[in-house]
Design goal:
Helix content of chain B: 25-40%
CATH class of the largest domain in chain B: Alpha Beta
Shape of chain B: globular
Number of helices of chain B: 10
Structural class of chain B: alpha+beta
Number of strands of chain A: 20
Structural class of chain A: alpha+beta
Mean pLDDT of chain A: 92
CATH topology of the largest domain in chain A: Uridine Diphospho-n-acetylenolpyruvylglucosamine Reductase, domain 3
CATH architecture of the largest domain in chain A: 2-Layer Sandwich
Number of helices of chain A: 18
Strand order of the largest sheet of chain A: 15-12-14-13-18-20-16
Oligomer: heterodimer
Largest sheet of chain B: 9 strands, antiparallel
Order of helices and strands of chain B: HEEEEHEHHEEHEEEHEEHEHEEEHEEH
CATH topology of the largest domain in chain B: Uridine Diphospho-n-acetylenolpyruvylglucosamine Reductase, domain 3
Number of domains of chain B: 3
Bound molecules: flavin-adenine dinucleotide
Strand order of the largest sheet of chain B: 13-10-12-11-15-16-14-17-18
Number of strands of chain B: 18
Distance between the termini of chain A: 40 Å
CATH architecture of the largest domain in chain B: 2-Layer Sandwich
Mean pLDDT of chain B: 97
Largest interface: A-B, 99 and 90 residues
Radius of gyration of chain A: 23 Å
Chain lengths: 514, 351
């Protein structure tokens, strides 16, 4: 495939898509590093402070590794008091802070800032209490997501949000991103599954948000902190809701010869009143990649497949599976298979869960996008993405949470090829525009981070961005926490708007031009 | 009818004249929240469903849309508001429902108001019309300002439009009744809560534990066989749950102050005198008592729980926040409403 020459408009996009933080999004300070280190050492063990370049290198990026910044310093507090002391020092000298969980974030949220402290929560890795009667677990924020369900399994309980990265990602990171997973269609996102958190503010105040019960008084600050990408405070501890493990789970594999049919089948399932525990879609490239890697028994010649899981009491599951099967056939599925054994069921899901690495085998690099759209536009948007991909001469594999309209187009590319990444970013940006155009959003679960600041300029108007900045200031008046992430400066949006002329019209005429 | 412009004019005028506003929807929950100062500001005319698409599981409506209308529309399409909102009167609007943030018995098993709010349009205290979230299920672009409005009692702005996630109605529901004492009931609720059952409500009062199950008929039959208990006739069950939701049940009558306590479900009954009604499988306890507010707030604080004096001649009062949290809440209020226009004093006395 020959890449099309970029349009004039694209050339502009290239220029603004390299992600050096905007000058309006940087926080400067005059603190001397040696002096800062000396003061830090009065609070933390020397082992828990890293300042040598080769030590810092480990922290230079998250899972969006195309962006790398060496942090000023890395600290790894072991206790809340130590974390508090670090924050107080940073606050005192105006040093910016970036918090990091496991660094599996896909939007550059944990990308360091060059003159700031990277605060790693890696040592906050203890499960503090499991309370089966109250169906909750109290954990430190650096605990891995999967570790919670593993620890609570003996009580017949589990923690529902299950991001594909759950082996590695931390509860703190999950809260900061409001992460979802395959099961969030039925069981909700992180925000729906936490009872309370302990939050350290940049001033070093320790707050409890939420409570032991379900409702609490005053503003729902738990809600605003969830998904706030480390901009409002540092989560040190969380109490998570646990659910009884389902008695039964059954999975259907529905095979389609067109994307349109598969998309329509998703809508049909929902409109029939079924809420599957998981409803995932894969397109042909994703199917082929996963099958070559895992041998899950996927049909390699299908245009699309749906994995549909029902769970609960066995009688309920039997009925739901029968209904879903009938719907898939009515929507034109060429075949619907029920996983007959638990082994078969797990194999079907193993294929789905390994699709990212499987796609990684097809191409030297891939870029994972994330946007949500109304379900009814699934087929249109997927076809739109295919058109765009062809225009930019790039291949895109789709594997995603179809049940809640959350797309994850994976763009295949080669970072060693000149211009490939730039083209990927422009294509990615166009895909997000498509999501916004059908009433969707630029990120369903991976966050804005550093990556989607420009996209935010498209999705929100000035007054809304100002409102976000006001919320940020309510927690962190000097903008020290994760400075320059998640919420773009008005200056950035003005410049972006000026370059990003759309259909001959300025998309953001409301913005003052800088 | 879209009254955005008119409402915005009023807010701008209020800013200009420094007139605090007391936002009123259907006035059905006037008793909830502290007494509010300000000029009555009626918003119920901003009304009507803007967008409803059953396959998307989303409804978007203007704040003044009657709750009853929304429920009727959803029922026609086999769907529901899964947080089982109390109306507390025929005039309840969706705006007031979201602002009050009160959820019914399904809260502990299905969802709360906060779980279903997907997006909002708001007039903030600068008189700007701002929009957050949207109609999609998953959205992490920007801070979750929409959910922040739930339970804020209108102190952060005038809610214009609200997008809510809706759910399919369960195929069937049955309610089982068990004659038990309070201690037995608490233990039973803990045990049932730990099992994979299609629970949609559990409550206890005087000597009866009510357990509601929702789902396919075959599943409910199986569950009922496992649990035993007496099956209530559908009409009696429906009346019972409605009387609880709307607080028409005889427990809620009388002049003794009524407290709403939100605590961990397995908490043994706190040492407070009075009469109890236990809902949400133990996580919500209604208490009719003459105990002092200080005693109740202190007891709840020791349990990391939250209390609200819900109905009383003394007025409504919320669990006071710790100092640092009080400061942060004041900052949030200021971030949305710098001139202190909206529903002054409704949440806390100071602002
Ligand atoms: C292969 C793969 C699959 C993935 N699948 C999914 C998926 O299915 N669903 C999904 O939602 N995401 C998924 N992700 C994205 C990522 O795993 C999640 O966003 C995860 O929640 C990040 O957790 P983390 O501990 O790695 O956080 P990090 O990457 O370290 O940090 C993420 C953000 O959270 C902030 N943060 C971290 N800890 C704290 C804290 N204690 N307090 C305050 N802020 C904090 C950081 O500053 C940063 O902004 C996937 C990633 C990969 C690599």
């Amino acid at each position: 495939m020959l890449p099309l020459p970029p349009t004039a408009n694209d050339a502009n996009l290239f220029k603004i898509m390299n992600y050096s933080p905007h000058s309006a999004e940087q926080t400067s300070h005059n603190m001397d590093k040696g002096e800062f280190l000396r003061q830090l050492k009065t609070q933390l063990k020397a082992d828990n402070i890293l300042s040598e370049p080769e030590q810092l290198r480990v922290y230079e990026c998250d899972a969006l590794s195309v962006y790398q910044v060496l942090p000023w310093l890395v600290v790894l507090p072991e206790t809340t008091e130590q974390a508090q002391a670090v924050l107080k020092l940073c606050s005192k000298y105006g040093v910016p802070v970036v918090v990091r969980g496991a660094g599996t974030g896909l939007s550059g949220g944990a990308l360091p800032v060059a003159n700031g402290v990277l605060l790693s929560m890696a040592k906050f890795n203890r499960i503090l209490a499991i309370d089966p009667d109250n169906r909750c677990a109290r954990v430190q924020s650096g605990v891995r997501n999967l570790a919670v369900s593993e620890a609570t399994a003996p009580y017949g309980l589990y923690y529902a949000p299950d991001p594909s990265s759950q082996l590695a990602c931390t509860i703190g990171g999950n809260i900061a991103e409001n992460s979802g997973g395959v099961h969030c269609l039925k069981y909700g996102l992180t925000v729906n599954n936490i009872l309370s958190i302990h939050l350290l503010t940049i001033d070093g105040d320790l707050l409890t948000l939420g409570g032991a019960g379900l409702d609490s008084s005053g503003y729902d600050l738990l809600a605003i902190v969830t998904g706030s990408e480390g901009l409002l405070g540092i989560v040190v501890e969380a109490t998570l809701k646990l659910l009884p493990m389902p008695e039964t789970a059954s999975t259907l594999l529905a095979i389609f010869t067109s994307i349109e049919q598969a998309g329509a089948a998703v809508a049909a399932i929902i409109s029939d009143g079924l809420i599957p525990a998981g409803l995932e879609m894969m397109d042909s490239l994703a199917i082929q990649a996963a099958e070559a890697f895992i041998h899950a028994g996927y049909p390699v010649d299908a245009a699309a497949l749906l994995l549909c899981e029902m769970d609960g009491m066995s009688e309920q599951v039997t009925e739901d599976i029968a209904r879903a099967r009938a719907i898939f056939y009515a929507q034109g599925a060429s075949e619907v298979r029920l996983a007959e054994t638990d082994h078969e069921r797990k194999k079907l899901w193993a294929g789905r869960k390994a699709t990212f690495p499987a796609v990684g085998r097809l191409s030297p690099d891939y870029y994972c996008m994330d946007g949500t759209i109304p379900r009814k536009y699934l087929a249109d948007v997927l076809l739109g993405i295919a058109d765009l991909a062809a225009q930019y001469g790039l291949a895109v594999a789709n594997v995603f949470h179809a049940g809640d309209g959350n797309l994850h187009p994976l763009i295949l590319y080669d970072a060693n090829k000149d211009n490939d990444l730039a083209r990927v970013e422009v294509l990615g940006h166009k895909i997000l525009e498509l999501c916004i155009a059908v009433g969707g959003t630029i990120t369903g679960e991976h966050g804005v981070g550093m990556e989607k600041l420009n996209g935010m300029c498209l999705q929100f108007a000035t007054a809304e961005l100002q409102q976000f900045h006001a919320v940020k200031a309510a927690f962190d008046a000097r903008g020290l926490l994760n400075a320059g992430k998640a919420i773009p400066s008005l200056a950035r949006c003005a410049e972006f708007g000026a370059m990003h002329v759309h259909h001959g019209q300025l998309p953001r005429p409301d913005l003052e031009r800088f | 009818m879209d009254n955005t412009d008119q409402l915005r004019e009023c807010v701008l005028a209020a800013i200009a004249h420094k007139t605090p506003l007391h936002i009123i929807g259907g006035n059905s929950k006037a008793f909830y929240g502290r007494a509010t100062q300000g000029e009555p500001f009626h918003v119920a005319k901003h009304s009507g469903v803007i967008h409803y698409e059953p396959t998307e599981l989303v409804i978007t409506a203007r704040c003044g849309t009657p709750l009853a209308d929304i429920k009727k529309l959803l029922t026609e399409h086999g769907q529901m508001l899964a947080f089982e909102p109390p109306h507390f009167g025929n005039t309840a609007t969706i705006g007031g429902t979201v602002s009050a943030g009160l959820s019914g018995s399904r809260r502990a098993y299905t969802s709360a108001v906060r779980d279903v709010v997907l997006g909002i349009r708001l007039i903030n205290g600068q008189g700007e019309v701002v929009k957050f979230g949207g109609e999609v299920m998953k959205n992490v672009a920007g801070f979750d300002v929409s959910r922040l409005q739930v339970g804020a009692l209108g102190t952060l702005g005038v809610l214009l439009d609200i997008s809510l996630k809706v759910l399919p109605r369960p195929e069937t529901e049955i309610t089982l009744a068990f004659i038990l004492n309070e201690a037995q009931a608490l233990t039973t609720m803990i045990e049932l809560g730990r099992q994979n059952l299609p629970l949609s409500a559990m409550c206890f009062e005087s000597n009866t534990l009510h357990v509601r199950l929702s789902g396919a008929e075959s599943a409910l039959k199986a569950a009922q066989q496992r649990l035993g208990g007496e099956v209530l006739s559908p009409i009696i069950a429906k009346t019972f749950w409605r009387s609880l939701r709307e607080q028409q049940h005889e427990f809620f009558q009388g002049d003794t102050p009524l407290w709403r306590l939100s605590l961990a479900p397995a908490t043994p009954q706190p040492q407070l005198s009075g009469q109890w009604f236990i809902d949400w499988g133990g996580a919500l306890r209604w208490l009719k008592t003459d105990e002092s507010a200080e005693t109740i707030f202190a007891t709840m604080q020791s349990l990391s729980a939250h209390a609200c004096r819900f109905r009383s001649v003394l007025g409504c009062e919320f669990q006071p926040p710790a100092e640092a949290l009080a400061k942060l809440q004041r900052n949030i209020k200021h971030a949305f409403d710098p001139h202190g226009l909206f529903n002054r004093g409704r949440l806390y006395a100071e602002w």
